[in-house]
Amino acid sequence: MESCTKFSKITKLDTYLIISGCNRIYPVYPWRPDRTNLTGNDKSMMLPWSEIDTVMFDMDGTLLDLHFDNFFWLKLVPEHFSKHHGVSEEQALAHVQSKYAQVHGTLDWYSIDYWQAELQLDIPRLKHLITDKIRLRPGAEQLLKALAAKGKQVLLVTNAHPISLQLKMQHVRIENAACPYRAVLRAAHQFSSTQ
Questions:
Q1: Residue 87, pLDDT score
Q2: How far apart are CA 163 and CA 94, in angstroms?
Q3: Do 134 and 68 contact (CB within 8 A), yes or no?
Q4: Three-state secondary structure string covering the chain
Q5: CA separation (Å) from 170 to 135, 158, 189?
Q6: How many CA atoms lie within 13 A of 54 on its CB side?
Q7: Taking a C-beta distance cutoff of 8 angstroms, is the pair 131, 171 a contact?
Q8: What is the separation, in whole angstroms, between the first and last Cα of the chain?
Q9: Burial class (CB in 10 A: 0-12, 13-18, 19+), 37
Q10: How far apart are CA 67 and CA 168, in angstroms?
Q11: Residues 45-64, mean pLDDT to the nearest whole number
Q12: Considering only CA atoms, which of 100, 173, 109, 86 is closest in space to residue 136?
């Protein structure tokens, strides 16, 4: 079967799993790694796996749980903004949330460079403080191994800034030998466009 790796447009994935064959795209709403059965025996996931050659995943909230990001943006950043700028934590939270709202849905929302300039904080350093919170969602590793065993190409398509992507990949080790599947990583920043 010919592999389909050319995409003229990548559709916003949110927390959905998008599975593509050469002639079709099968969205699975919502993806639950604990309920994915590649044999086709699970009635909730009746997909024609024999026709599917490529599986695309969003990263945050799909393969990775959101605890790291939620803690980082809603607790750690306001806490450090408060200390750095001499305002209360409540004022800091209100300020950063208003800044978040201004750029939500744009590449700036995901840009470490943007947030460093906007908040005057060392965002990469702060992210490194809490890498213990970066985790795969339950069942994600098993699903990825099952896809590899079936010879499926796996694409990780994300809006994450390259620094965030690298940090997360180092700590969950999606691409290492312990999870022997071929993942192609594509960050929206490479294309200057969100998913």
A1: 98
A2: 26
A3: yes
A4: CCCCCCCCCCCCCCCCEEEEECCCEEEECCCCHHHCCCCCCCHHHCCCHHHEEEEEECCECCCECCHHHHHHHHHHHHHHHHHHHCCCHHHHHHHHHHHHHHHCCCHHHHCHHHHHHHHCCCHHHHHHHCHHHCCECCCHHHHHHHHHHCCCEEEEEECCCHHHHHHHHHHHCCCCCCCCCCEEEEEHHHCCCCC
A5: 11, 16, 19
A6: 18
A7: yes
A8: 27
A9: middle
A10: 12
A11: 76
A12: 173
Could you tell me the two tokens for 169? 């990949």
Model confidence pTM above 0.85: no
* Nearest in space to 184 (alpha carbons), one of 4, 38, 89, 56: 56
Tens of pLDDT, residues 82-98: 999 999 999 999 999 99
Tokens standing for 122?
Answer: 């060392």
Place of tokens 């466009």: 193
* Count of positions (residues) in the chain: 195
Over 50: is that where the pLDDT of 74 sits? yes
Residue with tokens 């691409």: 175
In whole angstroms, give the CA distance from residue 56 to residue 64.
14
